[in-house]
Amino acid sequence: MQPPEAIPFLDLVTPHAELRDELCAVFHAALDTAAFIGGPMVQGFERDFAAFCGVRHCVGVGSGTDALRFALMAAGVPKGSIVVTVPNTFIATTEAITQSGARPDFVDIDERTYNMDPEKLREYLEAHCYLEGTSGRLIHRKLGQLVTAVVPVHLYGQPADMDPILELAGRYNLIVIEDACQAHGAEYFSRREQRWRKVGSMGKASAFSFYPGKNLGACGEAGAVTTNDPEIARQIRMLRDHGQERKYFHEIEGYNGRLDAIQAGILQVKLKHLPEWNEGRRQAAARYRRLFAEAGMEGLAPFEPQWAKAIYHLYVIRVPDRDGLIRHFAEAHIGAGIHYPVPLHLQAAYQSLRYAKDDFPLAQQAAAEVLSLPIGPKIVAAQQRRVMKEILAFGSAPRLAAAHASGAR
Question: Which one of 231, 247, 271 terminates a domain?
């Protein structure tokens, strides 16, 4: 008997096959002009992506990590100060903080969205910090360090609840840098402004990654910073290019963090298809939700608040026996992923920060249970039905029924 056709966790072959001629034309144009660094393709993508995000400026850089590090530096986050983020994210978030000279600190997540919980942020600012009377600076009571910025992460393609985060930032004089590396095109309804805002347009600056597996992915490494602040954009253009505004005249010490022209050209081609691809992911997420509802397992479907239009970079469920379900999927030739198995406060890289195991219990529990199902703009209903069939086959055991019984997580 032939094994069933494999369902990949992420299909990167089909979209590139469909765009092969357009993508190859980018490479041929670069060969014909020898414009490999900077030039019209980079400028064209920066213009188009800024318009897509609803901001005035976009600066292409070498990676999402570069984008976040440069955004923190250009926004004026002082070295030695504290930047608050969440422990349930990829380590690049905190790498960018430490590599910009700051210290990461954490608040726990909202159990339903997996993003920064604004109430936990409020508790952190009120209980662990105080405003210095004369200067208005925010000081961490125990560490005695300035707290200067907050980095909400729009995880899995789901916007963080930005209104209360921005309100707290305004009250405590904090810089807000959005980590939008997984959320290209996601939208947030601002109750304060009574309008939808694109992720990447609400903070002082925002960082995007175009790693190949992202909703908008390059064919290699790439990233960008979006901002409405012309001075931040100017600073990042210098930071990405050895601190120079014109060749060999270095205003500051910078980095080699430029966006390759070929990658920019590829991204410009793909950007035209991104709304369609995002809608394909949203339709796939709706099909999963219907399948869960039909099986009486609504609690397994991810929570999407009314104020969010998620773009489902990842489709994440929670099950207590995650390893068992992964093994079951492997036997059925179905791909799955874990994002992320170890919260950042427990990573060996941050032992020196001396966090305790149970400091952030919601993030820690999520890290032990989250499982990403196959999703993408080209996934078809038959594949999703087969994924659901295997979940049900596995779910006859108490290890899955327990997750459903807990309700919408």
Answer: 271
